[in-house]
Amino acid sequence: MVKELTTGAITAKNVRKEFLDPNGNQVIALEKVDVDIKPGEFICLIGPSGCGKSTFLRLVAGLIQPTEGNLYLDGEEIKKPSYERGLVFQDPTLFPWLNIYENIAFGLKTRHIFKENKEDVKEFIKLVKLEGFEKALPHHLSGGMAQRAGLARALVNHPKVLLLDEPFGALDAFTRMNMQDELLRIWKERGTTMIMVTHDVDEAVYLSDRIFVMTPRPAKIESIVNVDIGRNATYGRKRDSGDFLQLRSKILQILDYTGKAAADIEYNI
Amino acid sequence: MSELVQTFRKEKTKEASRPDFRFRTILPILGVIVALATEILIPAHAKLKYANLPHYRYFLFIALSATILLGIASIFWGSLREKLNYRGAFIGGVFLFLTFLNLVTAKWMLLPQLYFPSIARIFSVFFEDSKLILTCIQSSLTLLVKGILIGFIAGMICGIAVGWSKKANYWIYPLIRILGPIPSSTWTPLALVVFPSAKGAAIFLIAFGVWFQITILTASGIQSVKKAYFEVSSTLGANDLQNLFKIAIPAASPSIFLGFFNATCSSFVALMAAEMIGCKSGLGWYVNWQKTMLSYPNVYAGLIVVAVFCYILVTLQFKVRDKLLSWQEGVVKW
User: Which of A86, B131, B226, B314 is the most exposed place for a label (fewest CB within 10 A)?
Assistant: First the structure.
C-alpha cells in the first residue's frame, strides 16, 4: 500500500499577490508565503474569507501569476494551468452539454490520449461509484454525485496535485462525511498531493496532515499546524477524541475566534 | 415467484393495450360532418361565380375518412388516443371555422366575392396553378437556403471573433452596432445596383439579416460563458483553441440557436420583401403578382403555401434544436 512518493511537491518562495480593486486601489490578496508541501501530503487551508486561501489555490493551479516570488511543482516553475494540477470547485462545474462519461473523459480527449486510456475512465467511474450513470446528464445528478463526477474528471488525468476549493461546502452533513472518507480513500490509493480550502475546522482536522491557518488583513499564512493524531481504518480521525477537540480549539484560538467570537455574539444579542 | 411476476406483467400489458374510448376523439369527425353537411345541403348564393367547383367537397371527404380512420385507430392505440383526445376539440373547431367561412362567402355571400372568394375557389388554385406554385416554392427555398447559409457562416465567424478576441471586438463590434440594426430591406437600392441579378440582391438581403442576428447572439453567448468552465478545462489540459471549440461554442450554443431562430423568422420577411422587388419567381413574387392581377383566390392560395412553408421550416428547426440542446435543464420553449 505504502508507495514511495516522489512527485507532487509544491514549493512557494516568497509569494505575494496584489490585485487592483474596481476603484483602482491596490489590494494585497496574499503575502509572505514560503511553504514546502511534500509529495503525497494532505494540506488544508483554513481561515475566514479574504485571507487568500482561494488565491493561493489559483496560484498553484497557474490560473493567476504571483506579483512577486515563484511557485514550483517538483522544482519546475508554475507558469500556466496544466493537467498535472487538477482543480475541483465547490460548484462541481461539470460541462452540462456532456454526459457524465464524456465529462470524465474530457481531459484525456483534450490531451489526445483517450483511446489508449479508455479503461481508466471506466476505472474512475467505478472509483467514485457512478457506474450506471455514464449516460446521465449533469443536471440529473444529485449534488454529491456531481461532486464525485467532478473529482473523477480531475483524477483521471493522474494529476500530481489535486486542488480542492471547498469541494464539499454545498453538501449536507452526511453526504459531506461520506465524501470526506471517499476522498481519503482515493488519496491513499493514488498518493496524490491534496491541497484543500475549507471553512470547516473539523473537516481540516479530520483530513489533513498539516493545516495552514490563514488570516486576513494582511492576507497570509499565520501558522502551520501539524496534525499528529493517528488515522483510523478509513484514514480519517476519531471526531470526538480529546486530541481532536484540543487541536480544534487550538486552531480556533489561532484564528482568534474562541473568546472574541463568543463575546461578539453576546454583544449582538 | 418469477412466474408470478411474469403473469402479473402479462396482465399489465393486456390492460395497457385494452381497447378504450375517449369522447373527444369524436369531435374532429363531428366537425367534418358539420362542414360537409353545410357544403352539401345549403345551396350556394345565386350570384356566386364558379359555384360548381368540387375541390372543397373533395377535401372534406378526404378529411372525413382521415378523421374516422384516426378515431378507429385511437381506440386500439393508447398514445394516439391521448393525443387525439387532447387535440380533438381544436381540430373540430378548425372545421367549424371553415364552415363559418364557407357560409359568409359561398353560401350567403356577405362579403364581396372579388376579395373574399369561396374556399372551393382557393383550393382549386392548388390544382390549376400547381406547376407554377411548385417552381415558386423551389425558387424561394433556394434563395432562402443560400441566404441563410451565407449569413450563418459569416455570422458565426464574426460572432466567434468578436466574442473571443479582444482585438476583433475592438475593430468589428462598433461596425456591427452601426450596420446591424438597419433593417435589411433598407439596403435594397444598394443591393440592386451592386448585384448583377435580382436573385443575388435577394440572397444578400436575406444573408445580411441572418448575419447580424447570429453575430450578436453568438458573441454575447460566448462572452457570457461561466469563467469557471474555462478554468476547469485549462486545468484538465485544454489549450486556447480547445477552450474555444470544446467549451465556448458548446456553452454558447443555446444563445446561437436563439439567434438562428430569430434569423430564420426575419429571413422570411426579407425573402418576401426581396422577391417583391425584382425577382420573377418565388412565393413573395407570386402573391404580389396575383394581387396586381386582382386574382385574390391565388393570393390566398399563395399565402397558405407561405404559411405551410414557414411552418415546416420552423418545425424542422425545433426538431434539430431539441436534438442538439437536450442537455439543457428546463429548455426554453418557444
Answer: B131
Q: Cβ A83–B235 below 8 Å, yes or no?
A: yes
* Distance between CA atoms of residues A247 and B87, nearest Å: 69
Among B304, B299, B283, B312, residue whose Cα is nearest residue B143: B283
**Residue position matching grid coordinates 493524531:** A229
Domain assignment of residue B15, yes or no: no
Chain B contacts of A110, Cβ < 8 Å? 233, 236-239, 242, 246
A10-91+159-268 CATH: 3.40.50.300
> What are the domain boundaries of chain A?
10-91+159-268
Q: Read off the pLDDT of residues B86-103 as tens digits, 9 standing for 90 and up.
A: 999 999 999 999 999 999
Phi/psi for B42 (5° steps) reads: -85, 125
| Cell numbers standing for residue A201 | 475546522
CB contact under 8 A, A106 and B229: no
Residue B331 DSSP label: P
Among B234, B235, B242, B327, most A C-beta atoms within 10 A, so best to mutate, is B235
* Helices and strands: H and E segment counts in chain A: 8, 10
Q: Is the pLDDT of residue A259 over 50?
A: no
Report the number of distinct structural domains present in chain B.
Answer: 2
ipTM computed for the complex: 0.85
